Amino acid sequence: MTTTTHEAEVAAAPREEGLMNLTLKIWRQNGPRDNGRLVTFKVKDISPDMSFLEMLDVLNEQLQAEGTEPIAFDSDCREGICGMCGLMISGEAHGPEKTTTCQLHMRSFKDGETITIEPWKADPFPVIKDLVVDRGSFDRIIQAGGFISANTGAAPKAEAILVPKENADRAFVAAECIGCGACVAACPNASGMLFMGAKITHLGELPQGQPERDARVVSMVNQHDAEGFGGCTNIGECSHACPKGIPQDVISTLNKDLRTALKRGR
Amino acid sequence: MKRGTTARGTTVFLKFIMATTGLVFIGYLLLHMYGNLMVFGGQEAFDNYAHHLRTFGEPMLPYGGLLWIVRIVLIASIIGHLYAALTLWNRAKGARTTKYAVKKAAAASLGSKTMRWGGVAILAFVIWHLIHFTIVKPAINAEFAANDIVASPYTMVVASFQLWWMVLLYVIAMLAVGLHLSHGIFSAQQTLGWTQSRASYVRAKAIGHAVALLIVVGFLLPPLAILFRIIGD
Ligand code: SF4
Ligand code: FES
User: Fold this and answer.
1) Cβ of A97 under 8 Å from any chain B Cβ?
2) What class, spelled out in words, does domain A3-127 have in CATH?
3) How many helices and strands (H and E) does chain B possess?
4) Cα separations (Å) of A99 from A22, A81, B212?
5) Ligand 2 and A83: CB distance under 6 A
6) C-beta separation of A46 from A21 below 8 A
7) Where are the domains of chain A?
8) Pocket of ligand 2 contains residue A54 by CB under 6 Å
9) Among residues B39, B73, B24, B19, which one has the least CA distance to residue B219?
10) How large is the C-alpha radius of gyration of chain B?
11) Residue A75: strand, helix, or coil
């Protein structure tokens, strides 16, 4: 890995209180086949009220102004609900706070700090360019079983199938997963168990999820393994990195469901 | 959903193998520890116990029959545990071939981080331990005759643990075992799906630490008592 220095020129302006100058070491990779390397940039006068992605927008404007190719990174809602953004920030998925990268603010950093920014690194998430990765493997896991089959037609009455409060609560907690991939990025084994466990718990706690319960877990785990994710060693880095705080016990539910499916001959 | 897929051979299935074989080891360690503590009963009690292990179940079982059943179960468990561990280790390596330049470990315990290499170290220790007390029984302490060592398990143990460096070796090994168990016992419960709530998850961690501590202390009492001449003189 080589590190090159690149100084973005910024016009000197009178400095407001609390503005920050930062050194950014950013992963640049031209495409899936390129090896990738960290490149150093400087940004000046960053407001603590900016979001992390706005700070990158500022950098990209500088780069564009001087004819350097801007840094490719993903984002969509910038509200913490779509799961599109996601960066490894100085070794922590989504940075130092329990939130998404788009909802992370620069007040979490200090003036003069050096921040290393890398894409999620996991072979099932190949880098497309710079900080953008392809998380199609997650989509294929969901396609393998992360759904329920329902007849079309008029929507049934909401109270037709009652769900006990505890089940509804647990299903809701699990359903908060936004598929961002931070769990895989943070996991030393690059395992997708938290993401998968969230979906299996979400559907498994609800009556609608029961008919396909055994087939679901078997199909999803097989797809997970086929995509090349690692196995879980119950370390817990995933829940710590998860912006939605998906707890470890969803993985236990996944394990239990697979064990039940095994017992029933799958 | 896809047909023809099976739960067997998945990473989660490999973890079931890790967990169940791991629990076999825990059961064995607790029995082994109980046996070791017999050394506090003196030479006769300990030697009788060692003899009884071999005549247990006679005449339904041949001499040493129980021990051989236990050994076969343990050997099968070691093979399963190793096979699953190495396969998962290999998968994990392949799942991230480009490393991070900076990566923080925010939640990982020391035990969880040392499972793999710690496990290898424990395997090396187990091989030495078998040579030491089962297969070769070398007369390492010159103050004891080789014949006495082979004749009395009690003498064999006392002769070994009157040597400070031998005790040190076993202390280090038991700390490695304790570290491995502190994560492993919890991890097995999580893998078997016994921790589906916050409370049971916390309890599983506590059980892991408590059993690991019990095993470390229980195994270290006899060597330390012998080293400090509380027993054996
Ligand atoms: S479990 Fe959490 S970290 Fe993983 S994909 Fe879902 S929201 Fe992101
Ligand atoms: S951009 Fe949608 S969650 Fe960050």
Assistant:
1) no
2) alpha beta
3) 9, 0
4) 21, 10, 35
5) yes
6) yes
7) 3-127, 136-153+160-263
8) no
9) B39
10) 21
11) coil
Distance in angstroms (rounded) separating the CA atoms of residues A167 and A155: 22
Interface-testing mutation among A23, A26, A235, with chain B (most B C-beta atoms within 10 A): A235
Token duo for residue B127: 């091989």
State the Cα–Cα distance between residues B203 and B209, nearest whole angstrom: 10
CA of A21 to the centre of ligand 2 (A): 25
Domain ranges of chain B: 7-227
Question: Looking at the domain A136-153+160-263, which fold is it?
Answer: Fumarate Reductase Iron-sulfur Protein; Chain B, domain 2 (1.10.1060)
Q: Is A191 an 8 Å CB contact of chain B?
A: yes
Question: Tens-digit pLDDT profile for chain A (266 aa)?
Answer: 444 455 444 445 556 778 999 999 999 999 999 999 999 999 999 999 999 999 999 999 999 999 999 999 999 999 999 999 999 999 999 999 999 999 999 999 999 999 999 999 999 999 999 999 999 999 999 999 999 998 888 888 888 889 999 999 999 999 999 999 999 999 999 999 999 999 999 999 999 999 999 999 999 999 999 999 999 999 999 999 999 999 999 999 999 999 999 999 88
Locate B168 and state its tokens.
């040190």
**Residue A27: which H helix or E strand, with range?**
strand A20-28
pTM for this entry: 0.91
- The answer to whether B16 touches B123, Cβ cutoff 8 Å, is no
